[in-house]
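pinging the channel bc i need a second pair of eyes. not urgent but kinda urgent?? the chain im working w is below, pasted from the shared doc
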Amino acid sequence: MTREDITARLRHSLDPADILRPAAPAIGDFDLNPDLRAVVPTDRSLRPAAVLVPLVEREPGLTVLLTRRTEHLKNHAGQVSFPGGRIEPEDRDPVHAALREAEEEIGLDPGLVSIGGYLDSYETSTGFHVTPVVGFLTPGFELKPDPNEVAEIFEVPLDFLMDPINQQRHSRHYMGVERFFYAMPYGEHYIWGATAGMLVNLARRLGRI
């Protein structure tokens, strides 16, 4: 698919009144685990966060740029993720937050990112309301990962991630119950959880599933 094809299928506003792309209810960890709502506290407000979903326009085809977090981090150590984090008070909007975090984590120049739109908001069982911001990158950019946060940066072909065959459902025991989640093993990398869930949402947006 081309940049134009993908952009046409994304949300272009975070306003629920957006007529062209009505905002769907937030998706998230609870979709595959409705019983988790009974054991995860619901009396706390979800913390706003944003991630950048970078699509690199390589000659053979689009790829998705991902990071592997360092092993010493307190949260999600060693996991594959998109660049991103909490939306801070100084951030103008989720786009600003996603680009700021990407610059801090992997040294990506915000000026090199062409924003295409948004995926559906994603709620995590750890208490975050995440806005995924889809951006396009032209090859030639330079990255400098923060060694305190990022152990590795790698790319995966978009076609691989969008193929339903590679969108597996795995499970683990969590907080006394069996938790189900999407997983997309790719070589030595295990893409799972919220990151995989957002990629499944992208596949739905693109009409691949």
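so Residues 3-205 form a domain with the Nucleoside Triphosphate Pyrophosphohydrolase fold (CATH 3.90.79.10). and The chain has one domain: 3-205. — does that match what u expected or am i reading it wrong
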